Amino acid sequence: QVQLEESGGGLVQAGGSLRLSCAAPGGVFNSLTIGWFRQTPGKEREFVGAVIWDAGNPYYADILKGRVTISRDYVQNKVHLQMNSLKPEDTAIYYCATTRYGPTTTSRDRYNSWGQGTQVTVFS
């Protein structure tokens, strides 16, 4: 398992943008898929998107498709989730996680390492 750490959450007005980051302090992402999920109280943790660290295009869930971009930063050893045109319903705790399955793996049960999450709050 890989220790993960999210950052970049915060308070943003509707229509604004945030960039979340996922780091693996002391570890590596090699050969792993890094996924992003989000969760609000009382709801299931839902898949946002994922990307294989080594190559390939990200895969996105429909819930934020067109408003998010996942990118790899090989210099900082991080994966970023750029979110644009944010809406109040995007308010959630956002988590990154890793799996050895591919980026179309949407089930949280297939991910075995998780960060603590970062809070995103969008106000209107």
Describe the fold and architecture.
- The protein is mostly beta strands and 124 residues long.
- The chain contains no helices and eleven strands.
- It has strands spanning 5-7, 10-13, 18-23, 33-39, 46-52, 59-60, 68-73, 78-83, 92-99, 113-114, 118-123.
- The mean pLDDT is 95.
Write the layout of secondary structure elements.
Layout (H helix, E strand, L loop, with lengths): L4 E3 L2 E4 L4 E6 L9 E7 L6 E7 L6 E2 L7 E6 L4 E6 L8 E8 L13 E2 L3 E6 L1
Parallel strand pairs: 2-11
Antiparallel strand pairs: 1-3, 3-8, 4-5, 4-9, 5-6, 7-8, 9-10, 9-11
H/E element sequence:
EEEEEEEEEEE
* Count of discrete alpha- or pi-helical segments spanning 4 or more residues: 0
Shape: globular
Percentage beta strand: over 45%
Largest sheet: 7 strands, mixed
